Amino acid sequence: MKTAEIAQRYLDFFEKKGHTIVPSASLVTDDPALLFTVAGMVPFIPYLSGDVPAPYPSAADNQKCIRTNDIEEVGKTPRHGTFFQMLGNWSFGDYFKEGAITYAWELLTSSEEDGGLGFDPKDLWVTVYEEDDEAHDLWLKLSSLPAERIQRLGKDTNYWTTGLPGPAGPCSEIFFDRGPDYGIDGGPATDDDRYVEIWNLVFMQYEITNVRSKFEFDIVGELPAKNIDTGMGLERVAFIKQGVDNMYETDQVRPVLDKAVELSGRAYGANHEDDVRFRVVADHIRSSLMLLSDGVTPSNDGRGYILRRLMRRAIRSMRLLGVDGPSFAELFATSRDAMKAAYPIVGTDYERLSQYALAEEATFLRTLASGSEILDESVAATKAAGDAQLSGAQAFLLHDTYGFPIDLTLEIVEEAGITVDRAAFDTLMTEQRERAKADARSRKGQLADTSVYRELRAQGETVFTGYTDLETESRIL
Ligand code: ATP
Ligand code: MG
Ligand code: MG
Ligand code: MG
Q1: Greater confidence, 449 or 357?
Q2: Ligand 1: which residue has its CA nearest to atom 1?
Q3: Over 50: is that where the pLDDT of 449 sits?
Q4: CA–centroid distance, residue 70 to ligand 2 (Å)
Q5: Probe ligand 1: pick from 200, 234, 246, max atoms within 8 Å of CB?
Q6: How many A from CA of 257 to the centre of ligand 1?
Q7: What are the residue ranges spanned by the domains of the chain?
Q8: How far apart are the CA of 134 and the centre of ligand 4, in A?
Q9: Is the minimum distance from the CB of 231 to ligand 1 under 6 angstroms?
Q10: Which residues form the Alanyl-transfer RNA synthetases family profile domain (predicted)?
Q11: What pLDDT, in 10s, does the model give residues 211-253?
């Protein structure tokens, strides 16, 4: 079952159940504090909060999402992409727990011939919030799940709040069991890669006040209009239905992975580290393409910086796969071909998108070429001298003079089996900042590239003051 077909089945199912089908919102939010649409909920916040009356009692959609706070997981777990699509069904004071659970179970387990997703009930587990007896009992009543496969978990995983007074409520999550080859038999509570979370049902039920922390608050009472918010990971369902091991091997992503394999001349499946790199390339190229198609362009701050960083990480990964020259022309064109059926804009606007990608690649390859050469020499000299640590001064020189980012220095040096004198590097950085303050002019015009990294570090966490439970774009890549 192709990814697009799964999405269509989802939307058709909910349309038959009376939901209004809503197109995906942009990856770029209206809210400057929230860089990207990180969940299906984002465009519905005004309706869910009650600020704006919902124009329909229930809706369903397939929302494009970006979560850079999952970036470290990409390629290592089977299930985390920086770009992914979240299917969702929404009730604004219409149906509640019973309806949401009934629909979820029916869509997942009805046969493919009947328009369902054809999951075998034996492969499914659910979790409920530990005090949510109602959800627990509804699952027992409405599904064929035995009590052992309905696990009760705490607020950290199974409760949704905004971190502010207002709506809140328990969640119930649905997991697919990949089987004993992938881990022990303890259910999702064991938090193992064996159990893949595919769908989260949020029951917005209470009004809370006196919020002391995200999970310490007082419940004022029941909300007058209870809402349903659900999110199903399209790529996760796709990889399970396609019988492959992870989301990077699904039809919308795998062609890019294969192209990277071809360009590198290395095999996929031969070496774990290379495999992670192939998956990172496939993920980041697609995310970059989708960001470009929503109007983001590479820059030194905010959204543009995230895009720049994704592209640079892809380039770095290709280098680690032995490809020193340009590869974006082929990688982006491959991603375009895999995505344009679902998102025609990536085809029609490709000329513009690819120009940004190619320019970014050319610039970064120049930076890398000069920096890498010097770094390799320094590493060789360090080793020849019998030292296990590259001096802070060397790392600083690379950063300061050649615009070679410290994170890359750390990575390359570590791969060579030695370390960097980080404390000395930090001291030099501090001294430089002080010098710069004393003589702002001396810095002008010289550090165009390194300023990117400095700015981001200074930027720190982006706090989304509304719905802080959403995974905000807080991570520094
Ligand atoms: P996980 O615990 O696996 O990181 P999550 O609890 O963070 O997932 P939710 O915030 O509940 O995920 O999002 C709803 C659904 O979106 C998840 O059940 C999952 O199917 C999907 N999803 C979440 N994050 C990603 C991601 N980075 N890549 C692909 N799908 C995702
Ligand atoms: Mg997560
Ligand atoms: Mg989870
Ligand atoms: Mg979840």
Answers
A1: 357
A2: 197
A3: no
A4: 7
A5: 200
A6: 22
A7: 3-241, 252-431
A8: 19
A9: yes
A10: 1-477
A11: 998 789 999 999 988 999 999 999 999 999 999 999 999 999 9
CA of 456 to the centre of ligand 4 (A): 28
- Locate the ligand 1 atom nearest the alpha carbon of residue 73 and give its number: 27
Closest ligand relative to 197 C-alpha = 1
DSSP-assigned beta bridge partners for residue 64: 85
Q: Which residue's CA is the nearest one to ligand 1's atom 23?
A: 233
- Mean pLDDT, rounded, of the chain: 90
Contact 214, 468 (CB under 8 A): yes
Ligand 1 pocket, 75 CB below 6 A?
no
Span from the CA of 201 to the centroid of ligand 3 (angstroms): 11
Give the lowest-confidence range in 9-13, 66-70, 120-124, 164-168: 164-168
Cα separation, 300 vs 477, whole angstroms: 13
Ligand nearest to the CA of 247: 1
Rounded to two decimals, what is the model's pTM?
Answer: 0.86
Mean pLDDT of 255-272: 98
Longest dimension (CA), the chain: 73
Residue range 3-241, CATH number: 3.30.930.10
pLDDT at residue 469 is higher than 60: no
In sequence order, which residues have a C-beta less than 8 Å from that of residue 290 and are 6 or more positions away?
27, 64, 66, 83, 339, 343, 346
Cβ 199 vs Cβ 109: under 8 Å: no
Say what the ipTM of the complex is: 0.99
pLDDT tens digits, 75-91: 999 999 999 999 999 99
**pLDDT interval class at 441 (50, 70, 90):** low
Ligand 1: centre distance to CA 104 (Å): 16
Instruction: Report whether residue 81 contacts ligand 1, using a CB cutoff of 6 Å.
Output: yes
Q: What tokens appear for 383 in the block? A: 């080793």
